Model the fold of this input.
Amino acid sequence: MRRLLPPFSLCLTAILILSIIAGCGGVQGTSDDDASARAYKIVETIAAGDYAAAVEAFDDTMQQSLPPDLLEQAWDSLVGKAGSFQEIFGTRISTAGETKVVFVTCRFEKSLMDVKIVFDRDFKVAGLFFVPTQSTSDYQPPAYVDPDSFTEQEVTVGSGEWSLPGTLTMPKGEGPFPALVLVHGSGPNNRDESLGPIAPFKDLAWGLSSQGIAVLRYDKRTLVYQDKIAALGGDVTVQEETVDDAVAAVDLLLKTDGIDADNVFVLGHSLGGMLIPRIAAAAPEARGFIILAGAARPLEDLVLEQTIYIVSLDGVTTPEEQAMLDQLRAVVAKVKDPGLAPSTPAAELPFGVTGRYWLDLRGYDPAESAKGIDRPVLVLQGERDYQVTMADYQRWNDALSGMPDVTFKTYPDLNHLFIPGTGKSTPAEYGLPGHVPEEVVDDIAAFILSTQVHK
Done:
């Protein structure tokens, strides 16, 4: 599976400035040093403006999808937002299944970025990402965390071919404890939902466990099983991407010693929030639900809206950016086309998934569907969020405000990742350190503790 999103399109929780995901075999006979050196040279070549030379390292499909002129447009868009390129100052290797992936960390004027390069078995570039760098420094917890008040243990969510590694954070003391499952947004997120130096799910897990609430977080299926999903050609739906694993996480907590099985809650962020109605229907044992920046409008519309927002930040739309927007509008139109079929190829649609994914979501109205949830719901929204905006929040409010046991709150200073900032939110701020504020943790804890079933 390969996907090409226009520069600065966002998959809701991850900045995928250019995203081409490849389903490929492992690099055979290639050392980490060789891969690092080759990736370093490719990025150096791109930064020097020799796009034709850089493309020579691509496989056939990549050369067709990203010829030198499009690569130049993507790099220029990146520089336009992140500032002028400064230097390459390191590489690191990651392995997903048999795939060898190199992250080349670059310093730009305004932020750090990783150029993520995926090599196929022939040592050709089969995938290329520009993403905010993932910090390698030790996590520094916010002041509201009490590390001595909880423990962490590794767990496995689900069983069989799609089982996932996770972490259960357990308060110390006598249980049983109420518990919360954290469900990610779009993209191949890890258990901390890390983006650059930010780890919002870790903030939530440690902060809530400091207040006596167990928290389960896990690596997303699209991260752990990239190769297997790629082999399916993008023929998945949100059921496989998110819902099944969220339900498996609830089931795990229900069977875990020290957890109060009557008080297991689910928090969904972004896409996870959008899918809370489906998760609630599939997990009747869950006590309540938290929607954190939940998308309430069609995903394809949000992708286009986000891209227009980012392109407009500098007040100028270049001919290249306009061409990219026109191309994106055509792709979005295909999602809405009555002739869309389950077999429509992933290459013709957003997110690198087939028509089956989009048909599954066609007609799905999260806010209206949430009216069927018969348990407590908390809806939280950052007012500076440009990815899932106050327009989405208003849809939740309009649909649910008359229902019992539904609570709403917004935060003026918070962005999509619930990190504080000032002024208009931009992609660059995701590269800056920050934490989920104590107020948000307190609000979630208060909701769980006040709506739990008391025996």
Notes: Residues 1-29 have pLDDT under 50 and may be disordered. The chain has 16 helices and 15 strands. The domain at 9-132 is CATH 3.10.450.590 (Nuclear Transport Factor 2; Chain: A,).
